[in-house]
Amino acid sequence: MKVTNKILTLVIAIALLAGCSEEIKPEPFTYSQNFSGKNQKTWKYKSIVLWEQDKQAVSYTLTACIADDLYIFFANEEKRYEVTNGATKCATDEPDLLLSDTWAFTNAGATLYIVIPFLSDLTLPYIVREISKSNMLLEIFINEAGTQSYRIAFEVVSEN
Question: Alpha-carbon distance 117 to 6, whole Å?
Fold first, then answer.
């Protein structure tokens, strides 16, 4: 009889705890909102620097038709982003939408996977050196020794 009472007490306790538990509502991962805002965030190119170990960094100036392109990161489930032409096009027949793809961020290596059209047509792993509400600094190494890299800075144009 004692065993039955213990089992009954345990069942009642579990039922009470389950009945009083708070509903769990998953919250979206908010760190990724640094890239996308709550709905979307638009970035523009700010600067690019060639960094070499033990040498003076070299700043590059991109042509106006590339420098005014907009990078729009969406906070949707698929993590879509677009690169659109700014006010200046490199060719008159160039489309307004240059690229539509998905982005990915890995916390472990602080790595953002995107295509930056003026560097490559491929999705590449960019190390996120800095990210804030208004600025982002990405770096990609261009040699195996890790002694040369491009550091690309972006700033926010708008956020929704």
Answer: 68
**What DSSP string runs through 35-92?**
HH-SSEEEEEEEEEEEEETTS--EEE---HHHHT-EEEEE-STT-EEEEE--SS-SST
Which neighbouring-strand residues pair with 111? Answer: 106, 127
d(CA 127, CA 60): 19
Let me know if residue 8 belongs to a domain.
no
Count of Cβ atoms closer than 10 Å to residue 28 Cβ: 10
CA–CA dist 138, 107 (Å, integer): 14
pTM greater than 0.70 (yes/no): yes
pLDDT band at 7 (very low <50, low <70, confident <90, very high): low
Cβ atoms of residues 83 and 67 within 8 Å: no
Task: Quick: pLDDT tens for 23-61.
Answer: 666 555 577 889 999 999 999 999 999 999 999 999 999
Residue 7 lies inside a defined structural domain of this protein: no
- How many other β-carbons are positioned within 10 Å of the β-carbon of residue 81? 21
Instruction: Give the residue numbers spanning the domain of 70.
Output: 29-159
